[in-house]
């Protein structure tokens, strides 16, 4: 499902999903200028309208956005400290595969809303 939402989102913006291994890759260096949103249980919660407003502002500013979702042990602490936004999906614990689906659906929902598509009704 996450791949399907990424595919749909590509109609509106450049979007890709990749799995990285923290021991071998550091997305913080590759995307140093991007706005980094990292999922963390202690992060800020948002409703869909707030999330859409955030993406609208970042798009207007011309900012690249990177979302990072950790595995079973979460994200490395040094990565979390460099986040521009810590985001919590819920006080519940989700497997990272489900978190991917929720995040990619919300990204798709935001861009369809911003482009006047009827999906987010």
Strand order of the largest sheet: 2-1-3
Q: What would the principal axes of the Cα set say about the shape?
A: globular
The CATH homologous superfamily name equals SPOUT methyltransferase, trefoil knot domain
CATH architecture: 3-Layer(aba) Sandwich
User: Which percent band covers the strand fraction?
Assistant: 5-15%
Rg value? 14 Å
Helical coverage, percent range: 25-40%
Q: Which CATH class?
A: Alpha Beta
Find the structural class using helix and strand composition.
alpha/beta
Put simply, the count of helices is 5
Number of strands: 3
- The ordered string of helix (H) and strand (E) elements is HHEHEHEH
CATH topology group: Alpha/beta knot
- For the record, the count of structural domains works out to 1
Sketch the major β-sheet: 3 strands, parallel
Unreliable spans = none
What average pLDDT do the residues reach? Answer: 93
First-residue to last-residue Cα separation: 20 Å
Structure description:
This protein has a single domain (2-9, 35-114), classed as SPOUT methyltransferase, trefoil knot domain (Alpha/beta knot, 3-Layer(aba) Sandwich). It contains 5 helices and 3 strands, in the order H-H-E-H-E-H-E-H. Helix 3 (48-60) links the parallel strand 1 (35-44) and strand 2 (65-68). Helix 1 (2-9) packs parallel to helix 5 and helix 3 crosses helix 5 (96-114). The protein has a 3-stranded parallel sheet, with no helix packed on it. The chain has 121 residues and is an alpha/beta fold.
Concise synopsis of the structure shown:
This protein has 121 residues and is α/β, with parallel strands linked by helices. It contains five helices and three strands, in the order ααβαβαβα. The mean pLDDT is 93.
């Amino acid at each position: 499902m996450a791949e399907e939402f990424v595919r749909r989102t590509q109609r509106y913006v450049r979007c890709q999903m990749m799995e990285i291994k923290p021991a071998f890759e550091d997305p913080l260096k590759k995307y140093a200028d991007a706005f980094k949103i990292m999922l963390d249980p202690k992060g800020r919660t948002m409703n869909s309208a707030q999330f859409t407003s955030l993406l609208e502002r970042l798009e207007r500013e011309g900012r690249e956005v990177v979302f990072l979702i950790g595995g079973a042990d979460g994200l490395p602490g040094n990565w979390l400290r460099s986040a521009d936004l810590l985001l919590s999906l819920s006080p519940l614990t989700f497997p990272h595969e489900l978190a991917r689906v929720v995040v990619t659906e919300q990204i798709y929902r935001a861009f369809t809303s911003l482009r006047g598509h009827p999906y987010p009704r």
